Amino acid sequence: MDNDHVDPAELAALREAFGADDGGASALGWEAVRAFEAQHGVILPEPYRTCVAEVTDGSSQGPPEYGLVALAEGGGKQRLAEPFPLTRMWLWEQDDGGYEDPGAVIEQVAGDGSIVLGTDGCGMDWHLIVSGPHRGHIWQITGEGAVPFGAEFGHTTAEPGFAGWVRHWADGKEWFDSPAV
């Protein structure tokens, strides 16, 4: 997973997955992406950054179930420059995660360092981490907890990051398809 350089093969796979054959007409363009980054004090991780600039800024054709939301919708109200606070799965209904004030951390999980990519419904939202140690990783955040996505974290056989997340969806796989689950 390379957060700083886009892989041409990954970009081609993203174009195919999102059905972006409109020549980039549904994309934001580089000027708008750079303006968003400057406004929020972050550089978006690749390949999401190039996808939004050149492929599509949101898509009704998943992932997730209800489609990929536009950058301004998914990141406009978030505190993107603040680091995402987690580095491991946390089910807050089961424990306090070792935090002095778990309620404050839960609030940070929902608003700091991530862009909402979309939802699978019933409060199961997907986030792209843009700040902190998990920059570039995808997390599912629900009312019960937060889980990182990618084979290295268990629960799934997918590659980490935005391209791995999209590829897993495009291949028709269940999100959490690891035999260990």
Give a brief description.
This protein is an alpha+beta fold and 181 residues long. Helix content is 30%, strand content 12%.
Describe what you observe in this structure.
With 181 residues, this protein is of the alpha+beta class. It has one domain: 3-Layer(aba) Sandwich (SMI1/KNR4-like). It contains 6 helices and 5 strands. It has a 5-stranded antiparallel β-sheet. The model has no long low-confidence stretch (mean pLDDT 90). This is Knr4/Smi1-like domain-containing protein.
Oligomer: single chain
- What's the count of strands? 5
CATH C-level:
Alpha Beta
Q: Based on helices, strands and strand pairing, what is the structural class?
A: alpha+beta
Mean pLDDT: 90
CATH 2nd-level architecture: 3-Layer(aba) Sandwich
Helix content: 25-40%
Q: In CATH terms, what is the fold-level topology? A: SMI1/KNR4-like
Distance between the termini: 24 Å
Which band does the percent of strand residues land in? 5-15%
Side by side, the strands of the main sheet go: 1-5-4-3-2
**Number of helix segments?**
6
Give me the strand/helix succession.
HHHHEHEEEEH
Main sheet record: 5 strands, antiparallel
Q: What would you report as the Rg, rounded to the nearest angstrom?
A: 16 Å
General form: globular
Low-confidence stretches: none
Overall domain count: 1
Layout of strands and helices, then pairs:
Blueprint: H1 8-17, H2 30-40, H3 48-55, H4 71-75, E1 90-91, H5 102-111, E2 114-119, E3 125-129, E4 138-141, E5 145-149, H6 161-170
Antiparallel strand pairs: 1-5, 2-3, 3-4, 4-5
Helix pairs in contact: 1-6, 2-3
